[in-house]
Every structure is written in structure tokens, then in C-alpha cells.
């Protein structure tokens, strides 16, 4: 099986010749940029640079997929958020919000031609051409809970979930169309699958809020977006994995704050699992022995895709991800 075939089958809990390796979020580190000769912030806003840096996920690290959207701000930038694209050791950010909770949200007709979206779409096309059917090309979109943080501000939006729940539902219904439009464009550009990232973490979204506000939309997106979807949520999500497995989403990219055994038990064979390897204890601070032990645990527990838990810290050594990928393949071959 090719890396692409392994990754795509693993996402939907299909049969594979070995566990897949990869990530739904950024694997870029400062030393990986130095290795490739392509750097932030230019790699966020220049399509050839974005594609070249993303390609290192396979060509340098050995993962079965590549994913070129390194930041959380692409579609929000296209919506008009004034994004600071950061520097080589600092991820992008935006501290200004462009809407109040009661505003009418309209998706601009030229959304996909605006740089925030266009650059990513061009990079996906370049990666598809570069790798053909050998490597899985993964895109990324954000769900309406996260987009609401960007549009309205985190505090304002969370207060509105308590004080103006109907306004929140209207806003999320509008923003889900942004998610779908960008998703469909990425699929057309050549993405095999998508990460649906939505930061409804325990400290910002209670289990009841997830069930009442977010779960219906995640279920709808799983039905509307025409490719396998991996949901990414940071933090301890053990209180909502029972909801996630009912959405129809294919895969869940989980955080190491959920012990692997717990994640597997709660997934109950109804949603594939990706990640769960600590970015701090293993990816940044680990040695080959710790990495090998972590891989062995993931394989033993039945995690379908071995990889980091979330966007990798920029100061981590890329070689630890390379060891992670090679260990997964070595251990599978020797079992």
C-alpha cells in the first residue's frame, strides 16, 4: 500500500498494512524551516513556499500525509480579520474582532479569491501535483465555534452563549457556510481529506454546550462535506468523545490530556483516532527510547494514525517526529 492508501484507509478504520503516520495540524518547527530553507511568515502567505514547507511532512519527517495550512487564520483573514502573520518563531494572531454578536454575517462572493483562502488552495494544488497518488494531501477548515471566536472575540462570544443563545445559533448557522465553502474548494483543489478544527475545549465549552450548540453542526458538516473528516479539538475531551463518535465524523485527532486507553475505550470502535503523542514530553523533550515506548503504546492500543497531538511547538526538534514515523513503521514490520 502507498502512504496515501494507508493514511486514507486508517482515517475510516479500514484495513492497512501498518499503522498510518501523520498529523491533521502543523508539524512545522524552526529547525524544519531551516532544513527546507522556507520560513514563516512568508510560508503563510506565499503558495509555493507553503507547499514546499508542507512537503517536508513527508519528504523529511516520513509521514504519510502533508497538510499546508499551518495557522488558524486563513478563512478568517479572507473574511476581513486583520491578521498579524507572525515571524519564524511566532505563529500568526489577530486581536481585533470585526463583528458584534447580533450582526448579520455575510460570506463575500470573492471569498476564495482573497489571499487568505487563495494561497492555501494554490498550495494544495501544488502538493497534489507533486505527490500524485503517493501521499495523502490533507486540507484544514475551522468550524463555526472557532470562527465565532475570531469574528466576535472569545469572551464576547462565550457570554453570548449564556445571554443570547438564539443570536449565537444564527451566527454559527451563517459561519458554517464559510466552513463548507472553503472545504469544498480545498477538495476541488486536490485535498484527499480535511481536518475540521474547532476549539470547543473543556475550558471554553462545557459538555452541554458542545451537545446543544456544536454537535448538531458537526453532524451536519459530516454529511455535507464530501471527503473524510478528522475533527481536531485540543485539551481533555473525554467528556465529549461519546458525543463525537455519534456525529458521523470519520476520525478524531486527540490530545495527550486524554490517556490513550481512555480515548480508545470512549471511541468504542466508531471513530478512528489520530495523534495523542505529547508535544511537550515526547516531541519536544523526548529521546528515542521515550518515543519508541510511546509508539508501542499507541500501536498496542489500536490508535489508527500515529502522530503529534496538535500543532507542534516551533522550538521542538523535527528529528523527534522523524523518529516517531520511522518507529511506527519499524515496529509494525517487526510485529
Written description of the protein model:
By secondary structure, the chain is α/β, with parallel strands linked by helices. The protein has one domain (3-93, 104-334): TIM Barrel (Alpha-Beta Barrel), CATH 3.20.20.210. The chain is 50% helix and 9% strand. It is built from 15 helices and eight strands. It has helices at residues 3-11, 30-36, 42-45, 47-59, 74-79, 115-131, 144-152, 154-163, 165-189, 207-224, 241-244, 260-267, 279-284, 288-301, 318-334, and strands spanning 20-21, 65-66, 136-142, 193-197, 229-232, 251-254, 272-275, 305-306. Strands 2-3-4-5-6-7 form a six-stranded parallel beta sheet, with helices on both faces. Helix 9 packs parallel to helix 10. The chain is globular. The two termini are 18 Å apart. The relative contact order is 0.15.
Amino acid at each position: 500500500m502507498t502512504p496515501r492508501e494507508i493514511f486514507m484507509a486508517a482515517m475510516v478504520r479500514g484495513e492497512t498494512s501498518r499503522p498510518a503516520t501523520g498529523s491533521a495540524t502543523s508539524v512545522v518547527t524552526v529547525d524544519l524551516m531551516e532544513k527546507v530553507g522556507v520560513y514563516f511568515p512568508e510560508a503563510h502567505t506565499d503558495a509555493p513556499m507553503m507547499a514546499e514547507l508542507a512537503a517536508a511532512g513527508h519528504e523529511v519527517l516520513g509521514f504519510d500525509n502533508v497538510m499546508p495550512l499551518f495557522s488558524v487564520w486563513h478563512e478568517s483573514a479572507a473574511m476581513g480579520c486583520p491578521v498579524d502573520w507572525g515571524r519564524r518563531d511566532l505563529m500568526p494572531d489577530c486581536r481585533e474582532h470585526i463583528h458584534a454578536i447580533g450582526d448579520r454575517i455575510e460570506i463575500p462572493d470573492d471569498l476564495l479569491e482573497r489571499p487568505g483562502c487563495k494561497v492555501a488552495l494554490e498550495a494544495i494544488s501544488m502538493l497534489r501535483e507533486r505527490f500524485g497518488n503517493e501521499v495523502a494531501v490533507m486540507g484544514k477548515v475551522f468550524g463555526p465555534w472557532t470562527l465565532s471566536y475570531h469574528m466576535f472575540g472569545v469572551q464576547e462570544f462565550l457570554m453570548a452563549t449564556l445571554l443570547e443563545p438564539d443570536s449565537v445559533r444564527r451566527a454559527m448557522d451563517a459561519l458554517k457556510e464559510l466552513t463548507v465553502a472553503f472545504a469544498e474548494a480545498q477538495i476541488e483543489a486536490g485535498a484527499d481529506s480535511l481536518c475540521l478544527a474547532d476549539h470547543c475545549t473543556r475550558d471554553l465549552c462545557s459538555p452541554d454546550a458542545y451537545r446543544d450548540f456544536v454537535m448538531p453542526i458537526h453532524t451536519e458538516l459530516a454529511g455535507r462535506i464530501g471527503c473524510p473528516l478528522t475533527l481536531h479539538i485540543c485539551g481533555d475531551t473525554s467528556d465529549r468523545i461519546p458525543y463525537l463518535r455519534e456525529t458521523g465524523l470519520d476520525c478524531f485527532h486527540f490530545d495527550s490530556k486524554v490517556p490513550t486507553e481512555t480515548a480508545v475505550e470512549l471511541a468504542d470502535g466508531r471513530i478512528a483516532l489520530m495523534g495523542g503523542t505529547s508535544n511537550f514530553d515526547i516531541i519536544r523533550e523526548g529521546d528515542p527510547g521515550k518515543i519508541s515506548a510511546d509508539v508501542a503504546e499507541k500501536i498496542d492500543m489500536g490508535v489508527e494514525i500515529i502522530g503529534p497531538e496538535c500543532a507542534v511547538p516551533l522550538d521542538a526538534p523535527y528529528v523527534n517526529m522523524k523518529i516517531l514515523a520511522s518507529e511506527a513503521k519499524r515496529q509494525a514490520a517487526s510485529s
